[in-house]
Amino acid sequence: MLACLLLTFSVFSAQNLIDPQEVPHIMNKFFSYHIDKKQMTPQIIRRTIKIYLEQFDPEKIYFTQSEIDSVLNISDSEVNHIIAQYYKGNFEYFEEVSFLIQKGILRAQRFRKSLKNELINRPIQEMDIEFQSGYASNEKELFEKQKYRINRFFLFHDKRSDLNTKKRRKKAFNLFEKKARQGEFVYLFLDSNGNPMTNELANHIFSQKLLKAMAKSLDAHTSFFTENEAFEMRMNLEKQFEGVGIVLSESIDGVLVADLIKNGPAAKSNKIAIDDMIVSINDIDIKNKSFEEVLQMMKARDSSFLKLGVKKAGNSRVIQVRLSKEPIVMEDDRLTFEAEPFGNGVIGKLNLRSFYENGEGINSEKDIRKALHALEKKGPILGLVLDLRENSGGFLSQAVKVAGLFISSGVVVISKYGQEIHYLRKVDVKSYYNGPLIILTSKLSASAAEIVAQALQDYGAGIVVGDERTFGKGSIQYQTVTDENADLFFKVTVGKYYTVSGKSTQVEGVKADIVVPTALSVYNIGEKFLEYPLQPDKVNPAYRDTLLDLDMKTRSWFQQNYLPYLQKQILFWKGMLPTLRANATYRIDQSLTYQKFLESIKVVNDPFYKPHGMDLQMEQAVNILKDMIFLELKTQVDAEKAFSKKDNFQK
């Protein structure tokens, strides 16, 4: 999931079961905050029905086109009837859609049962078959789609653990069936053991699915989350959680340790290693537990420790390992940096994957300041690359602070909520770095990353290098995700942001000053390819800050302590762009390695492809940075010579 530009608020609290009668009330909260959708409409209903089906069947392997048409192609009068029923808390039409889903599930289970022996008894092989991207035209094609899906699962696990025997292929099939049924049971209103849910729980699940579909129908980034989804988002935003530091994966042999988090309790114990098998948790055998149930047992908060039954690879003996839960900082997901010697100093490379912040004082702005200090100890920083290629966003406040490290005072973000316009400013006059700067981006750079890239581009503090454009997410969401005590978890689009130039990154993204393509350049990635994106617009530039959004007392302080130090647009690098572009284009054209890379990404199905592990974009960015360092130095020398001549002439 893409990280979003997040602001925090709370209106609900979390453990209550939701009844369908409550859905209109909850949706009224969404409508009250949403940027432009204020009530239930026929358009939202039609979108909701479509999304409700796609949530269950994103791969289009459960239904024929005619079945889908029967529920999507409904008249305006039928839609108006659905809306009228909606306001009464009656969702009979969606119950009919749920019944279609259940029919599709039971048919798929029959298909899989008939395929079991065929797939287990023959060696694994590629299926030479192509399908249209849409739904199947008939049941025969649907059967082949199910077969292809299972075969693809077999091929994946064959690479992981070699399915060279009938016994191991049977294990693989059983794992596939187990995972398929876990997703299907929810729509059949069965618990993880296949027993009927209580009416209250079934209504809750039904209401959750409705809310997810309705929220998503408002725009590309409004969402409703389950408690587990909110936990994962919170962990990614804050880069910290409490646990034992084990990453698990599900294989045909059981639940395996896929990774250990650096400095976590498991890693520090030296008793658990990657590829170990977990067989019990707190003396409870997990053999018949679903993977989701295992994860819930690992996350349970009823104890300050976990007792794990562990089997070492190639050893049948089970050892018991007791681990205390601790706050774990996800160091690998925080800022990383390195220095490359150059001339009499260094070129710094900062890799920032998100804009994170938590209550323990960990945040991206502070980490960058520490990195700059550490780089300075290695020598003068002659140039800097801020790598945002895999940065999909995070906290708006951190985007403002990170951009503020490279400018003096000034507006960084303009936010617009309806007709209200607010300005987010960098007030501290100190600039932490003002030398040659490259912001390295890709089509995955989104939201807060786009704010930083475009703000620094607007001010001329740095140049943007990378894919032709970034993702194009220029909307702001309020959210309850970071409040773990919220009644319900959601995010809702409430406005758009713009940078100091008045430009929005919505849909169009940030355009690179110098195009240095990544492997993502050949993919259709971005806001423009999502369903229901908001349309871009502009506001007035704010280079000359009028302070009109501030009260008189605050305005007086800003006039004395802020306005005199406003960051002025730096035009130097804009003037140097033709030279920098020409040099970069020449190097790329002359590089056999880069030309092979550009040909390879057309056929290699890997958006993060790096030939032989080489980071060609970073290499080119550093070369451009060296050009910038040289041009800046040459300009300084030429200016000194000109001044010297003038001084001699005057003498």
Number of domains: 3
Low-confidence stretches: 6-14
**Broad structural category:** alpha+beta
Inertia-based shape? globular
Helical percentage: 40-55%
CATH architecture label name of the largest domain: Alpha-Beta Complex
CATH superfamily of the largest domain: 2-enoyl-CoA Hydratase, Chain A, domain 1
Task: Give the tally of β-strands.
Answer: 20
Integer-rounded radius of gyration: 28 Å
Q: Distance N terminus to C terminus?
A: 68 Å
CATH topology of the largest domain: 2-enoyl-CoA Hydratase, Chain A, domain 1
Helix count equals 18
β-strand percent reads: 15-25%
Mean model confidence by pLDDT: 92
The biggest beta sheet is recorded as:
6 strands, mixed
CATH class assignment of the largest domain: Alpha Beta
Describe the protein's architecture and organization.
This protein is an alpha+beta fold and 651 residues long. It folds into 3 domains: 38-217, no CATH class; 240-329, PDZ domain (Pdz3 Domain, Roll), CATH 2.30.42; 335-631, 2-enoyl-CoA Hydratase, Chain A, domain 1, CATH 3.90.226. 42% of the residues lie in helices and 17% in strands. It contains 18 helices and 20 strands. It has helices spanning 23-33, 42-56, 65-72, 76-87, 92-121, 139-161, 166-187, 199-216, 227-238, 265-269, 291-299, 364-378, 396-404, 448-459, 552-561, 572-590, 592-600, 616-650, and strands at 6-8, 223-225, 240-243, 246-251, 254-260, 277-281, 284-285, 305-311, 318-324, 326-329, 336-342, 345-351, 381-387, 410-417, 420-426, 437-441, 463-466, 475-479, 489-499, 514-515. The strands form 4 sheets. Strands 1, 2, 14, 15, 18 and 19 form a 6-stranded mixed sheet that branches. Strand 14 (410-417) and strand 15 (420-426) form a beta hairpin. Helix 13 (396-404) runs parallel beside helix 14 (448-459). It is globular, with a radius of gyration of 28 Å.
